[in-house]
Give the backbone structure.
Amino acid sequence: MAKKEINKINNSLSLQNNQELVARILGATLNCDIKSLYKLFKNHENNDEVSFTILTGIFHLLSGDHGLHEVLRPLDTFENGHPSPQKLLKEFFEKFEEILSKQNYSNYPVAVVPGANINREDFLGESFIGIFKELFSTVFDGSFSRHRGDDAFIVSDNTKSLFRIVSNPDLVDNDFNRLLLLTVSGSLDTVFRYNFSNSKSKVWDSRRAALDYFIMQLYIFNDAIPKKSQEALFRRWKAWFTLEDRYKIENKKVDRKKLQDEMMEIFKKI
């Protein structure tokens, strides 16, 4: 009975009436204390307002320069000797999407100190852009081929979840989609510059086939991306594909320093 009463109190808890909890969330965020944030998240996961605020703190930490793996390492999330930060990220995104689906989040606070020189939308936007960069890097850095197949798909699913999250109203400002398109375009360019090959045999290379698969899944056929951005990404992918195909047909020597400019010449004509 007592346990039920505690849960009932937690479910109706408002951060406006609990400055101690606010201080704990902000303190853990400022001190990059992922263990405390995760503990708070598990203790209050039935309260949407509290969970929302805690998750914004977690997202802020995950968007930094240290990388998902290093930030989440203190949680000791290991399976068979392999770290599984993406499974934790999946848990965070699923809870955040659940909260957003109820459409009551507009006035939920974020984990930023009052008076800080950043507003709610910018705080969330910077966090999401940072996580996007990390996810794209994880998918396309070449290491995913050494993962178990389902791990690679978890990374891909997490990326698509984040695209869905940022499509919700009142989370990010009007400039976010432009910044996101720049981020995604830059990621696509990096992938092609690094993996660009004039070798015809690469067409049958299994690793390259996997790379192309995830490019299609995340960039080209991802309905969570706004239509105009999706069209721009398709043109960019087509320009890279055309350029690489030209190199293969002509057996042209690859000069990676020139690839970006050569691609842009094609891109402008499409």
Remarks:
- The chain has two domains: 1-173, 176-270.
- The first strand starts at residue 78 and ends at 79.
